[in-house]
Write a structure and sequence with these properties.
globular, Fructose Permease, 9 strands, two-stranded antiparallel sheet, 160 residues, alpha/beta
């Protein structure tokens, strides 16, 4: 088993056309794990997420606590697994819960009240920025990149 996951990605839309059309063609993913308490509690939304994926791509949905408990014993190859999270706070809780990763992709966080643009169409709240800083302090390499092929921006570059 490899050391790290194929991709840990924050995208407040979770599975959508961009993830399927671009990321899954760019990297050889065989599974997407959605870690989100709301979706884990909603069977209808779980089905929507599964239907959004192309045939042959396995989609699993875990609550945050379930992911922390189950992913360390997971037998599926890590390098072909994409983990999708809705927020930096969830990414931090996952990391603090023992799911270690070297890199984090921030691809989609929409604008709204109390949020400031940080890179292209990505906006963050104060709490989200604090969670990203905490992950960066742990040595996680955080990049802002919507889709492969675009120029990525390092979190360290943005905050310096």
């Amino acid at each position: 088993m490899s050391q790290d996951w194929g991709l840990i990605r924050i995208d407040d839309r979770l599975i959508h056309g961009q993830v399927i059309a671009v990321w899954c063609k760019h990297r050889p993913f065989t599974r997407i794990v959605i870690v989100d308490d709301e979706v884990a509690a909603d069977p209808f939304m779980q089905e929507v997420m599964r239907l959004a994926a192309p045939p042959g791509l396995r989609v699993e949905v875990f609550s945050l606590e379930e992911a922390i408990r189950r992913l360390p014993q997971d037998a599926h190859p890590r390098e072909t697994t994409m983990i999708l999270l809705r927020s930096p706070q969830a990414a931090l809780r996952l990391y603090e819960g023992g799911i270690r990763y070297a890199a984090l992709n921030v691809g989609g966080l929409g604008s709204g009240p109390g949020r400031r643009p940080i890179f292209r169409h990505i906006a963050v709240s104060g709490e989200e920025m604090a969670a990203l800083r905490a992950l960066a302090e742990q040595g996680v390499d955080i990049t802002f990149l919507t889709v492969p092929g675009e120029k990525a921006r390092s979190f360290r570059d943005l905050v310096e």
